[in-house]
Amino acid sequence: MKVLQIGRYPDLAFVDVPIPEPGPGQVVMRVLGVATCPQWDLHLRHDEPMFAGHSFTYPYTPGQPGHEATGVVTAVGEEVSSVAVGDRVSAWRDQGHDRWGCYAEYAVLDETNVIGVPAALPVEATASVELAMCVGATFLLLRTMGGLSGARVGINGLGPAGLVAAQMARAEGASRVVGFDPHEGRRRFALERWVDAAPDPACVPEVSFPARPATPALDVIVDCVGSKRSVEWAMDHASSRVALFGVQREDYTYAPRHYGGLSLIGYPGHSREAAEYAVALIGAGKLDLAPLITATMPLGDYQRGIDLLERQEAIKVLFVP
Known about the structure:
Layout: E1 2-6, E2 12-16, E3 26-35, H1 38-45, E4 68-76, E5 88-91, E6 106-110, E7 114-116, H2 123-126, H3 129-144, E8 152-156, H4 160-171, E9 176-180, H5 184-191, E10 218-223, H6 228-237, E11 238-244, E12 263-265, H7 272-283, E13 293-298, H8 302-310, E14 316-320
Parallel strand pairs: 8-9, 8-10, 10-11, 11-12, 13-14
Antiparallel strand pairs: 1-2, 3-4, 3-6, 3-14, 4-5, 5-7
């Protein structure tokens, strides 16, 4: 089989290796499609670590950073009981970048890291279950903190995570969903599908979205950006809760003006429960991941696909090995 190995940009190679065999508690998945994670793919291209203290070593681990993948189980190891050969599954958890990833024709995954998905759905609809799980963890936490039924919900950032969050807010009963993003195309895309309004954060009308100490027009804001400016804007414009999903790279200031009922909610972490929540929404038709895939191409065109992300001409790219 062939597996992609990324070197320092623009170097990459397609390595020929034997189809892997599963160990105890593992499955082999024939990859039908693997979606980009723009954060990882672009940070790797520019050698700019996503997290404080992290660094890249080139050439990178074969198959990485591919982890949003769906496929068919072709072999199972000893002690595997939850899936069988022929099952359609998705990877719901990134196994770590020290292990071979899914930018490959076949991938070995721990049984605990795959979840069954509806075989009747197109690959585009289930490849990014891992992303949906990540976002879903935040929404399960919000359920325990008053829920979203009837709430006016803001989404900061309309990239892949924000577009999933907008759909989950709807599924949780939000009465109004507003998305904020500087990219006109992203705002238009979301407005056509999942949000009621999509202002440019650089020119949000104060009359429509008053800041504290006035009464905010939004009850809850889910921040999918992570910047200091974005999070502090959210704290100024939410009346009850701000949930942090975007990767934090700098300190935020929770100021006296934020007192009086505002809760700042950290990210709860990944869980199988969140993966099951996401797959249930997909099966019920309340979460559609397929529109996030704006380009599909062979894995051999990897650099061309990442070029589209770089130019913000694609939300996500699906590679077919």
